[in-house]
Specification:
The protein has six helices and eleven strands. The chain has a six-stranded mixed sheet with strand order 1-2-3-4-5-6. Strands 7-8-9-10-11 form a five-stranded mixed sheet. By secondary structure, it is an alpha/beta fold. The protein has one domain: Metallo-beta-lactamase, Chain A. The structure holds zinc ion (ZN). Zinc ion binds next to loops.
Length: about 200
């Protein structure tokens, strides 16, 4: 399993870092853990082919974690992608992505494309197969207009635990149990106080 942090920044561009986007490659498949608004730029910057991404798994529905999905879909449309793309995330993920697409590119949800975008709603602690990967979401503490999750991603006997933006919660112990890698993000006070949703 190969893990690359294409983006580890927050919603405010702190440190000049790209917004959250973790590229995971294993068993011939590629997924993104979160896809912040700057993620297509980050993929170009670090030589990751957007058309090779099989699935995007979203921890929660804040713009710095899912705002790159419309750009990924638009890029795939113009590159004449034919491989299906899966977008997995909290309940309501399809509606939030489609609403964002319409705000950014009016009419874009009605465009006929050569590939299928499949939306998968994750449910608390229910393992979900995504190709060779299995993702298990754990409910955490972070207001985002939908349930927010920590994610446990498993493949080839390896496990990654990713906290998302949560404050401390004992649930993280379950998400990280026996994991190979634990990735943790932290919302700064500044970030949490400066966005419309009251958190990053
Ligand atoms: Zn957030």
């Amino acid at each position: 399993m190969r893990v690359r942090f294409l983006g580890s920044g927050d919603a405010l561009g702190s440190g000049g870092r790209f917004q959250t986007c973790i590229h995971v490659q294993a068993a011939g498949a590629q997924v993104l853990l979160d896809c912040g608004a700057s993620s297509l730029v980050a993929m170009r910057r670090f030589g990751v082919d957007p058309q090779a991404i099989d699935a995007v798994v979203l921890s929660h529905l804040h713009g710095d974690h899912f705002g790159g999905v419309p750009f990924l879909i638009l890029d795939a449309q113009f590159k004449r992608r034919t491989r299906p793309l899966t977008v997995a995330g909290p309940p309501g993920v399809e509606a939030r992505v489609r609403a964002t697409m319409e705000v950014l590119f009016p009419g874009s949800t009605a465009v006929e494309r050569r590939f299928v975008t499949r939306f998968v709603e994750l449910a608390d602690r229910l393992p979900q197969g995504l190709g060779p990967f299995t993702v298990t979401p754990f409910p955490v503490v972070h207001a985002s207009g939908a349930p927010s999750f920590a994610l446990r991603l498993a493949c080839d006997g390896k496990v990654i635990a990713y906290s998302g933006d949560t404050e401390w919660t004992e649930v993280l112990l379950d998400a990280a149990a026996s994991s190979s890698t634990s990735t943790r993000r932290r919302c700064s006070r500044t970030a949490r106080g400066s966005t419309a949703a009251g958190s990053s």
